[in-house]
Amino acid sequence: MSLLAGLTLLGFGTHEAMVQHRLQREGARVRGLVVRHHVEGSGMDGGPVYFAVVEFVDAQGSRHTFQAGSSGVKGFPVGGGVPVRYLPEAPKSARIDLRGRRLGEVAARLVGGTLFLAIGIWMLATGR
Fold first, then answer.
1. pTM of the model
2. Fewer Cβ in 10 A, N or C end of the chain?
3. How many C-beta atoms lie closer than 10 Å to residue 97's C-beta?
């Protein structure tokens, strides 16, 4: 199971890296607005996990809303502006356009996938 989880996370990480790369090359930049925070389950400390929900208007004047792919609301107060990048032909591709956020979303998946994969290989090698 660890091998499968690792490969799956590596796949998600690779996909996110490709989306982020394409957004940097071809994406349109706009200013978004944090409209609320979505709360899910509990984090590592047992408390709730918050995701910023961002609204933006595309070049055609249509409104779109998306939820940030990683948790945390520090620096993202409701009513605050955030930079957004999206593909004009696919507004659902929108992401918060902050370097640390972009790298974090890719790195978390790749690191997690590598860890699970390494554990799976170790378990196979040691017969566990």
1. 0.77
2. C
3. 20
The tokens for 44 are 């590592």
Q: Report the C-alpha gap between 95 and 86 in whole angstroms.
A: 7
The DSSP annotation for 80-98 comes to -EEEEEEETTEEEEEEE--
Contact 44, 55 (CB under 8 A): no
Number of domains in the chain: 1
Q: 4-13, 54-63, 79-88, 103-112 — which is least confidently predicted?
A: 103-112
| Cβ-proximal residues to 124 (8 Å cutoff; 6+ apart), any chain | 3
Domain hosting 10: range is 2-126
What is the residue whose two structure tokens read 């918050």? Answer: 50
